[in-house]
Automatic annotation (TrEMBL):
Keyword Transmembrane belongs to the record: yes
Protein name: DUF1232 domain-containing protein
The DUF1232 domain, residue ranges: 45-80
Entries under Pfam families matching the protein: DUF1232 (PF06803)
InterPro entries from the UniProt entry: DUF1232, UCP031804
Keywords for the protein's UniProt record, in alphabetical order: Membrane, Transmembrane, Transmembrane helix
Membrane topology: Multi-pass membrane protein
Subcellular localization: Endomembrane system
Superkingdom per UniProt: Bacteria
Coiled coil: none
Length: 117
C-alpha cells in the first residue's frame, strides 16, 4: 500500500483526530511538520519526516486510530523515532511554532490555522 503525504491531508487528519490523539501526539506531529518546512533541514531529514507524516495520515496503520486508548500509540512511537533521528533540526522556532499551534488547537473548538513562520 502506498502512502502519500500532503499538507492538506495532514491538517485534515489533525482536525478529525486531535482531541482523541491528545496533545502529545499532536505536538510531536507539529514539530516534525515545522522542521520539514525549515530550509536548513537537509533532504534526508525531510524524507524521514514526510515518510512518518505519510504514515500518520494513512487510513490504515498498525493500530487503527479509532481504536480506543491505543489508536495513536503506534503513531507516537514512530514520531519519537523520527524526532530522535532529526533532533538537530528541531530548533527553538520549531518547538515554539508547534507549541503555539497545539495551544491554539486545544484551546479552541475550531481548527486552527498553522502558525506562519
Amino acid at each position: 500500500m502506498e502512502h502519500q503525504y500532503s499538507d492538506k491531508a495532514f491538517w485534515q487528519k489533525l482536525a478529525l483526530y486531535a482531541k482523541s490523539a491528545g496533545r502529545e501526539v499532536v505536538e510531536k506531529a507539529l514539530c516534525l511538520y515545522y522542521a520539514a518546512l525549515r530550509p536548513e533541514t537537509p533532504g534526508w531529514a525531510k524524507a524521514v519526516i514526510i515518510s512518518v507524516l505519510a504514515y500518520f495520515i494513512a487510513p490504515l496503520d498498525a493500530l487503527p486510530d479509532f481504536t480506543p486508548f491505543v489508536g495513536f500509540t503506534d503513531d507516537l512511537g514512530v514520531f519519537a523515532g523520527a524526532l530522535a533521528m532529526v533532533a538537530m533540526y528541531i530548533d527553538d522556532d520549531v518547538k515554539t511554532n508547534a507549541a503555539a499551534t497545539a495551544e491554539r488547537w486545544f484551546g479552541m473548538t475550531q481548527t486552527p490555522e498553522p502558525v506562519s513562520r
